[in-house]
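Example record

Each entry pairs one chain with its bound ligand, zinc ion.
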Amino acid sequence: MNTLAKEQSVDVDSREYVDALRHSCAHVMAQAVQELFPGTRITIGPAIENGFYYDFDGPHHFTEEDLPKIEKRMRQIAEGNHPFIGKEVTPEESRKFWEARGEKFKVELLDGIVARGEKVTHYSHDNYVDLCRGGHLQDTRGIRHFKLLSVAGAYWRGDEKNPMLQRIYGTAWPTKDQLDKHLKMLEEAKARDHRKLGPALDLFSIQELAGPGLIFWHPKGGLMRLIMEDWLRAEALARGYQMVYTPHIANVELWNTSGHRSFYKDNMFGEIEVEKGEYQLKPMNCPFHILIYQSRLRSYRELPLRLSELGTVYRYERSGVLHGLMRVRGFTQDDAHIFCTPDQIEGEVEGCIDFALHVFKTFGFERYQMEVSTWDPAKRSDYIGDEGDWGRAQAALESVLKRRGVPYKLCPGEAAFYGPKIDVKLIDAIGRSWQLSTVQFDFNLPRKFGMEYIAPDGSRKQPLMVHRALYGSIERFFGILIEHYAGHFPLWLSPVQVKILTLTEAQNDAALALESRLKAAGLRPAVDLRGEKIGAKIRDAQLEKTPYMVVLGPRDVASGTLAVRLRDGRQLSGVTESQFVSKLSQECAEKLTSPHWEQPQ
Ligand SMILES: [Zn+2]
Ligand SMILES: [Zn+2]
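Structure tokens for the complex follow.
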């Protein structure tokens, strides 16, 4: 029996260190939980982004009230500065150990490790032992700045046929400063939660009767979606994309040909029988665009062919992972597929990146991260496609970003088996990153479908294929927008841009007349003619996060000027109607995220 070597040199900012810290924290939490709640069985406790969790099984029903007690015991354990000690054990020893403790989940994990022919290792600190492949701190000393956050249910191995476990989430950081910053961010995120703001602003809902993970866009959200779609469509057309529409279901033979019935099976809804044929809802649009390509023989002169669709897809996401607009079962992608020749690759990649950057800028995102995923050349046989194509595609992805001066992270070995890609992550107003756009090469589908074009020399060649989505999912992008702006959308996206508030009913006619003039000028006004006090009307308009309020009293009507309130509380008086209209029209046209206003002279 040999003790494993110490695992890491200490660079507290490295991903390895932070992951080791978080995972070590999960061990300490499991120890505390088992001490405080006897009879609790342990399962798995990985590091995740910004934190860690551990899934438990046992008689105690955990609530958030248990967390301070667990945290307190964790601090005591951590202060003991216990080393994490790993040792390799034989499968028999391990089985005996876990069986004696009644840890049936660990026994099941052990079976998996043995079946995969992997080494069996036990890691211990203080008096706690875990079955684990490693990745810990040297000792518990680094575990200082952590907090337990929440409790949730989670199925064993993520499978709803398995028992429901109890998951405790926590966060841990190398410094107090980082922890405080993260906790503050979580608080801000809570206040911006699109699952609360969306229904509160009457933008969308999820209806129990229809089922979870399915989004209902209400008139205000629907209008915003229309604006987003119209803008994108116009941009795509101007950039040489052609719009297509394709069905929502297809015969299983299509999904057999594409391979989705094998590699994507778990995320597809089941078969629907139609006249002895079987159909399935589409989880992706790609095969449909390929069928359009193949509807006739293509010449090199038609390439690049850029087919674009706002395509609605359906994916069977497990109920446990559904999350507002971010993770749903039906959503619309701004999907496009580009078919091109090898010498067109670089131009096409550049076009995609340029388009993506334009989207971010337009919607007010200033910060983003790019990741280029390439293959692992040592595992050549894991990938499909021609070596030259891989080389050209990977070089194009990098050279476009370099030429544009866009910083990126290179992720060797992270490419899918069918091609390299660029992923773009947005950074929102409170510093969170969101995976958004993807530019993904595909050397697999053209081969599976036997796609061809006639080359200049008359020979038949296989086109290259790029999948490209910018918003990604319109639902998810909308959720990100709600949280990024905390509902204070830029004027051009706001469903109601101006709320006209009357002081008394004597101003009703003037208000309605103003409303129709603003409408005629292309703005989106609404009137509040209720018999409420003006203070209540202003408060309600603020709750609706309306960008502009116009308060109409007898003097305003007499003077013919407007008293304008901005949603940040600024007030302007004596604004002429034509000044108001031209200012707002300009704000929309320039897609400003915050208005530039000065009190008119
Ligand atoms: Zn471990
Ligand atoms: Zn695709």
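Residues 284-286, 337, 467 surround zinc ion (ligand 2) (CB under 6 Å).
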